[in-house]
Specification:
- This protein is an alpha/beta fold.
- It has 14 helices and 10 strands.
- The radius of gyration is 20 Å and the shape is globular.
C-alpha cells in the first residue's frame, strides 16, 4: 500500500513541478467590461448533483453578484484536482479530505476551506445477492477500488481481514456481471444506473465502520493569502447555491449539468439529489461529526481524521497539522 502511495504521489509531484514551470508568471486579468474577478474551480467528476451548489450559484448568477466570474472545469478519472489547484491552474477544487491530507504531506501548497459533503457518500457496492453483510465478511473477497483509498488499510486493521484488491476502472459492467464482486462507488450515483439494467445493489457505508471522512473544497494557499475577500465572496455564493439546490428549485443547476454532461439524464439528476437530501450529506448529523449546516468545516474533526490516518501509518506523525490541513477563516458568517 505504501509503495503504491509513493508511486502515486511521485507522479503527483512530477506533474505539479511541470505545472509550476509552465504556469509561472501568469497574471489575473479582470474582465474590463464586467469588472468580474476570474476564478477557476476544478471539479472531481463529471457534472452531477454532487456539484449542485456550484451549478446553482453559476446558473442563478450568485457568483456574479459577488463580483466573480467563475469557470467550472469538468472532472473525471484524470481530473488531477490537487495538482491543478497547487499550481494555480485552478484556485479551488472539489476533492476528498483523506487524499487532500496525503497531498499536503507530499508538500503540495493546498488546504481545505469548506465542506461539500459532511459525510462521504463513498461506499462498498455489491449486488443484493452477495453474501457479504458486514465488513468482517470481506475477508478473502475481491474488492475493486482505488489503491490509494485510505479506507482499505483502515478496515484491514480494524477487522483483522485481508482481501484481493483490483484497481478501480470506474466501470459498472463487471459489478453487474459478477455477483461476488465488491466495488467502491458513490451510493448516490451507481445504484441508479444498475437498477436501469434490472440489477439492485446494496452497500456498506464507510462511515459505519468509523471512517467518517468528508468531501471538501480545497484551495491554493497563495491565492488565499493574496485574495482573502474574494475567497469569502466565493464561499458566500457557494453557500447560497447549496441552500437553493437542496431546499429550492434544482432545475437551473440540472439544466446546466445536462448541457455539459451528455451521459446524464434528468431522471438520474433528480434521483441523486433526492439521495443527497435523504441522507443529509450536505448539512450532516452533528451527533456523528457533521456540522449541521452547509459548507461548514470543523478543525476539530479534521484533527481527529489526521490522528486516525497517523495511526494507520498513512500520515507521518506531525507531517500534516490541523493548521496545514484546514483554514476555516473564510467560511460565511451567519449565512442566510
Amino acid at each position: 500500500m505504501k509503495t503504491v502511495l509513493r508511486c502515486v504521489f511521485g507522479l503527483v509531484m512530477v506533474i505539479s513541478l511541470m505545472g509550476y514551470l509552465t504556469g509561472c508568471g501568469k497574471k489575473v486579468v479582470v474582465n474590463t467590461e464586467t469588472k468580474l474577478f476570474p476564478i477557476t474551480v476544478q471539479l472531481d467528476w463529471f457534472a452531477e448533483p454532487e456539484h449542485g451548489a456550484f451549478y446553482t450559484a453559476k446558473a442563478l448568477k450568485y457568483f456574479e453578484q459577488e463580483g466573480l466570474d467563475v469557470t467550472l472545469l469538468d472532472g473525471g478519472p484524470g481530473a488531477f484536482v490537487t495538482q491543478k489547484v497547487a499550481t494555480g491552474v485552478a484556485q479551488f477544487g472539489q476533492y476528498d479530505s483523506t487524499n487532500s491530507f496525503l497531498a499536503i504531506q507530499e508538500g503540495l501548497p493546498i488546504t481545505n476551506i469548506a465542506v461539500v459533503f459532511q459525510h462521504d457518500p463513498t461506499a462498498l457496492l455489491m449486488q443484493e445477492s452477495n453474501p457479504v453483510k458486514t465488513f468482517a465478511d470481506l475477508n478473502g473477497k475481491v474488492i475493486k477500488a482505488r489503491p490509494e483509498w485510505a479506507f482499505l488499510p483502515f478496515i484491514k486493521k480494524k477487522y483483522g481481514i485481508d482481501f484481493r484488491l483490483v484497481p478501480q476502472d470506474f466501470g459498472l459492467q463487471e459489478l453487474m456481471a459478477d455477483s461476488t464482486l465488491v466495488q467502491q462507488g458513490f451510493y448516490i450515483a451507481e445504484p441508479f444506473y444498475t437498477e436501469q439494467k434490472g440489477i439492485k445493489l446494496k452497500w456498506l457505508h464507510v462511515y459505519d465502520a468509523g471512517f467518517d471522512s468528508c468531501n471538501t473544497i480545497i484551495a491554493n494557499r497563495e491565492f488565499l493569502a493574496k485574495q482573502p475577500e474574494r475567497v469569502r465572496a466565493f464561499l458566500r455564493a457557494y453557500y447560497r447555491g447549496y441552500k437553493e439546490y437542496c431546499e429550492g428549485d434544482p432545475t437551473p443547476a440540472h439544466d446546466l449539468m445536462l448541457a455539459i454532461n451528455k451521459n446524464a439524464t434528468r431522471a438520474f439528476l433528480e434521483w441523486s439529489r433526492a439521495q443527497i437530501i435523504k441522507e443529509n450529506l450536505a448539512k450532516g448529523d452533528p451527533t456523528k461529526g457533521g456540522a449541521g449546516d452547509y459548507v461548514m468545516i470543523s478543525p476539530d474533526r479534521v484533527g481527529r481524521q489526521i490522528a486516525q490516518m497517523e495511526s494507520l501509518g498513512l500520515l507521518k506523525p506531525g507531517a500534516v497539522t490541523v493548521e496545514k490541513a484546514v483554514d476555516a477563516r473564510f467560511l460565511p458568517v451567519n449565512p442566510q
